[in-house]
Amino acid sequence: DRVYGRAAHGDAGAIAEYFVTEEKAVAAVPGNVSFNVAAAVPLAGLTALQALERLGINEQSSVFISAGLGGVGMFAVALARHHFKAKEVITTVSTAKVERASELGATRVVDYKKESYTEVLEDAADAMLDTTGDTESYRVVKRNAKVVSVAMMPDGDSLEYFRKDQPPLSFFGKAKLGVLKKVVATASWFLTRGFRSKGITYEYLVMDPNGKQLEEVFNPLLESGVIKPVIANVHAFTNQGVQDAFKESRDGHATGKIIMELVRWQYRNPYHDRTKDPTRLFVFGPHTLTISQRPTQTIDLYHNTGYLVWDGAYLLSQYIFNHLALAGKTCVELGAGSALVSIVAWLKQGNVVATDLQEYQEFARRNIAANGAQVGVRELVWGEPLQQELAGCADVVFGSEILYLEAQHDALLRTLRALMKEHARAYLVYKDRGLGEHKFHERAQNAGFRLRELPLDSEFDSEPYHLLVLSFVSK
User: Fold this and answer.
1) What pLDDT score was predicted for residue 101?
2) For the segment 346-399, what is each residue's pLDDT rounded down to a tens digit?
3) Given strand 420-431, what is the order of strands in its sheet?
4) Using CA atoms, how far apart are residues 315 and 304, in angstroms rounded to an integer?
5) Cis peptide leading into 168, omega within 30 of 0?
6) Region 187-201: what's the mean pLDDT?
7) What 3-state class would DSSP assign to 269?
8) How far apart (Å, rounded) are the C-alpha atoms in residues 148 and 50?
9) Is the dihedral of CA 290, 294, 300, 305 positive or negative?
10) Could you give the CA distance from residue 177 to residue 468 in angstroms, rounded to a whole number?
């Protein structure tokens, strides 16, 4: 299953290819949300949610959230406005980020580069979420207000949530932990004296990893697009990538979340030209597929395209395996080539027909047979409805890397019209090579199709791929 979450208290080592934690700490990733977007949510998102709950934010609240485009701040601003429906959401950002903070939901944004926020916002809010640890921030809230901090000194009892076997607590040992609590409590009391001078209730929050909150609160907001995590940068999970990610975090100037993305080294090796391999292995869950190629052929966008497993075919296969339920559905792949997509659709229990030009049909059959799949093969003539038995029969149509020939767009749309049932969908993966792929969108809309793009979990950051979904209600 595709899951996301924050490691349970006591667990460590989540920057890894494999990690074990409690089931209650994770939730299923919504189908239209990528892994990178999901990874940006749990730590900061849950911290923001639980802090706002502790503050008792509601429709009548005026809440101040410091650093509205920081990791926690960006979620807190969006949640306060769109989930808790706060009357007023006030925040601070630097000059370049003012407009973005307003887009997230802030009703008042102070540019701290131009003016002192403690002066212009004095006594402006009923409650505050402190994400910066500024001991002067108490000036922003009214007397007897409530403040929750995730950045200032924790109180002594909060140390119970930190791992005892790792620094800094491991330096003290059990015998001295009680003394450390008193030291921390004293320091916290001193730093929060300004808050007490106004009768403010101050609390330090340690976030509780909670898969149920991810599922019930964040999944609907992510699916609907109400919350869109801001991602500052994505670093590869390599030695250099990890160093770069921590350096960016330490510098403290990132706008949004810093993501480390697992490198699927089994498939993508920068020191090896995969087009030269006569066979390639692809792993989908418990299934390992062996796909043949013909590396001796001259292959480019116009010649022998069917003899190579294109990146788009792999990404579409990934999406099918991870997101689509095809049991009992009639599936047709256009331009099947090596038939990888068709074989994966068959693994998902679809009734699959792979189609391509006549010259590639025997090649597709060999790959299908080699993997024990039960997939039919038919000839594809662009613009034609294929064989009569396929006319109007498809529940789902797949196509990868078939939009780069602009001259074939109208023929492709005629083929889709001829194949698709009412309420059927076509999933087309493509990379914008500057060959007119974007013109397909307008042509498809003019032909009566509804279009939407879904995110892909793509490891090819330098070569962004798109997943286009087409549907129509009636012919």
Assistant:
1) 94
2) 999 999 999 998 889 999 999 999 999 999 999 887 766 555 566 778 999 999
3) 376-379, 351-356, 330-334, 394-400, 420-431, 465-471, 450-454
4) 20
5) yes
6) 92
7) coil
8) 10
9) negative
10) 57
| DSSP H stretches of helix in 26-160 | 35-39, 42-55, 71-82, 98-104, 117-120
**DSSP element (H, E) containing 470:** strand 465-471
Q: Classify burial at 288, counting beta carbons within 10 Å of its beta carbon; exposed 0-12, middle 13-18, buried 19 or more.
A: exposed
SS3 assignment, position 421? strand
How many other β-carbons are positioned within 10 Å of the β-carbon of residue 278? 9
Q: Which two tokens stand for residue 113?
A: 């580069």
Residue 268 has pLDDT above 50, yes or no: no
Displacement of CA 24 from its chain's centroid (Å): 20
Which residues, including other chains, have CB under 8 Å from residue 252's CB and lie 6 or more apart? none
Helices (H), 252-376: 311-323, 340-347, 361-370
Confidence of residue 87 (pLDDT cuts 50, 70, 90): very high
DSSP symbol at 433: -
**Cβ atoms 416, 426 nearer than 8 A:** yes
d(CA 78, CA 71): 12
Q: Is residue 312 scored above 80 in pLDDT?
A: yes
Q: Is the pTM of this model over 0.85?
A: no
Q: Which pair of tokens denotes residue 445? A: 């809309």
Reported as a single tens digit per residue, the pLDDT across 106-145 is 999 999 999 999 999 999 999 999 999 999 999 999 999 9
- Which ranges constitute the DSSP H helices of 378-461? 409-419, 439-446
At 146, is the secondary structure helix, strand, or coil? strand
Q: How far is CA 73 from CA 93, 101, 104, 131, in A?
A: 10, 10, 10, 7
Amino acid at 31: G
Cβ atoms of 320 and 348 closer than 8 Å: yes
Q: At a CB cut-off of 8 Å and minimum separation 6, what does 89 contact?
A: 63, 65, 77, 80, 81, 105, 106, 107, 108
Task: Give Cα separations from 406 to 78, 304, 402, 427, 434 (angstroms).
Answer: 41, 18, 9, 18, 10
> How far, in whole angstroms, is CA 62 from its chain's centroid?
31
Work out the average pLDDT over 330-353.
96
Backbone angles phi, psi at 30, to 5 degrees: -55, 150
Query: To which residue do tokens 């038995």 refer?
Result: 389
For residue 380, the model assigns a pLDDT of: 86
* Residue at token pair 């609590």: 181
Kindly report the number of other CB atoms within 10 A of residue 142's CB atom: 16
Residue 265: pLDDT band with limits 50, 70, 90: very low
Q: What is the number of residues in the chain?
A: 475
Q: DSSP assignment, residue 153?
A: P
Neighbours of 13 (CB within 10 A): 10
Higher pLDDT, 190 or 460: 190
